[in-house]
Amino acid sequence: MPKHYDLEAAARYWGQERLKHRDELAVVLSLRETKEVNQAYDTWESSLVVETLGGVRGRKVVDLACGVGRITVPLARAGARVLALDNAPGMLERAESHVRRAGMAKSVQFALGPAWSIPVPDRSQDGVVCVGLLEHLPPAEQIRVLKEVDRVLKKGGSLATVLNNPHSILLQAPTDNRFRKGHQFPNGYYCALVDRKKLLGTLGRHFRVEPVGTNLFYSLLRFAFRAEGTAKDIALRRRAFKVATELDLRFRLKGLADEVLTDHTFFRARKLR
């Protein structure tokens, strides 16, 4: 295992190895989960991104670690002027293809590089999206990303981000992601439960941070189907996850259950100065 985070190895993993999979939602979300699980998560997260950033028409928004462009396209369709940044050339090529097919090429610029080096001036952006990224970076790099977000956002600008839950008994279960070990594997993959308290504390210095919602119903259903080893009926699974997503979007915060059972919490951080 490398002592330091190997950016090139990560780019090869995400931009080559992952892209061998035909299901592009699985490529950027979870290779292990079934299609309807990834679709449910994508609907929950992308819906909250657009809502959290508010009226983005004509505004500058950075999509960090844009992957295949699953958030880039909705942002562009909502009228944002998007900078899509990714460290993996293969991901950028795929994202650019999706953006062109969506007819949004004039609204999106693409840049190659790590999320802690955004090629824009200080205080020049209205919004930043950082989802599906921090859990795939070591703690030091996570902090570098948040500091860079602070640098590029205007006063009053917003960060939309998702943090996984280090207290979740479901994410800590042996049946969950066996590669979520907090170190980088030889192929470049890194995944971990984040130190949410530390990350929110870092943001809290210059941002007003508030939780927007959690995916508790999705989390419970995902784990239940896996634990039982049943649910072979694809139509049933699809309907079940559709309902779970609707419930998570309707009932945003669920109290104590969120602390111990939910997979992810969506946060809005508004820059104060």
3D architecture notes:
The chain is of the alpha/beta class and 273 residues long. It has a single domain (7-164, 175-214, 265-271), classed as Vaccinia Virus protein VP39 (Rossmann fold). 41% of the residues lie in helices and 18% in strands. The chain contains 10 helices and 7 strands. It has helices at residues 7-17, 24-28, 35-53, 72-77, 89-101, 139-152, 196-204, 216-228, 234-250, 256-261; strands spanning 60-64, 81-86, 108-112, 125-130, 153-164, 207-214, 264-271. The protein has a 7-stranded mixed beta sheet, sandwiched between helices. β4 (125-130), α6 (139-152) and β5 form a beta-alpha-beta unit. α1 crosses α5 and α3 runs parallel beside α9 (234-250). It starts with 6 loop residues before the first helix and ends with a strand. 43% of the residues are buried. The model has no long low-confidence stretch (mean pLDDT 95).
Largest beta-sheet characterization = 7 strands, mixed
Total number of distinct structural domains: 1
Indicate the mean pLDDT: 95
Q: Examine the secondary-structure arrangement and name the CATH architecture.
A: 3-Layer(aba) Sandwich
Class inferred from helices and paired strands: alpha/beta
Q: What kind of oligomer do you see?
A: single chain
Could you provide a short overview of the structure?
The protein is α/β, with parallel strands linked by helices and 273 residues long. 41% of the residues lie in helices and 18% in strands. Helix 1 packs across helix 5, helix 3 packs parallel to helix 9 (234-250) and helix 8 runs antiparallel to helix 9 (234-250).
